[in-house]
Design brief:
The chain has 196 residues and is of the alpha/beta class. It has five helices and seven strands. Strand 5, helix 3 and strand 6 form a beta-alpha-beta unit. Helix 1 packs parallel to helix 2.
Length: 196
């Protein structure tokens, strides 16, 4: 707080450099986390966060410079590391009205980063992977139809990242069960079906 945008970017660039140099054996780094937000009015923004103190509308044609700066710094500091963008509601949620919009926005960001700096890093650009934070609601996946619909969208997300050469990691996985109304045995069976 209280920093100009340039000061904030410089602090973060220095932080990325110092941490990656301190731990050179770490081979996977989440460089950015939860940068894309969909607001209640349906607009997509690069939201305020510890990495980005400045709220700005989303524009896939012009990603904020800091995104390139952070990934470029990480790539230069450890060219062999797997660099990851991490976010939630991007794996194919069918119960969140704005999830598709967010998933598409994140995909376009990752695609831009993947195709950047290919003159220096022809095999990979600036990014290697995306992290899916899977915070699921068992009550929304409690029938075969709902679960199949979710899995279909999940596979579509996996496929489109694979098509651009980006790996997918499941960085978080939890299952909300408090909204299930069945008996303990019925609820356990629903959870069992979801996990399998």
């Amino acid at each position: 707080a209280g920093y100009t945008e340039d000061e904030a970017v410089n602090l973060n660039v220095n932080y990325i450099t110092k941490i990656m140099r301190k731990y050179p054996k770490v081979k996977r780094w989440i460089v950015l986390n939860e940068e894309v937000q969909v607001y209640s009015d349906g607009s997509v923004h690069f939201a305020k966060s510890p990495w980005n103190q400045f709220d700005r509308p989303y524009n896939v044609q012009k990603l904020p410079d800091y995104m390139y700066d952070y990934f470029r710094t990480a790539r230069q500091t450890n060219p062999d590391a797997t660099l990851i963008y991490n976010d939630y509601w991007i794996e194919g949620r069918t119960d969140i009205p704005t999830a598709d919009k967010k998933a598409d926005a994140v995909f376009q960001c990752v695609k831009q980063l993947r195709s950047s700096d290919t003159d220096l890093y022809p095999e990979k650009g600036l990014i290697d992977a995306v992290g899916f934070q899977m915070h699921l609601d068992a009550a929304h996946l409690n029938t075969k139809v709902k679960l199949d619909s979710y899995l279909t969208k999940f596979k579509e997300q996996l496929r489109r990242y694979k098509d651009i050469g980006v790996k997918v990691f499941l960085t978080e996985f939890d299952l909300e069960i408090t909204k299930l109304a069945g008996s303990d045995e019925e609820n356990e069976n629903i959870c069992y079906d979801i996990y399998l």
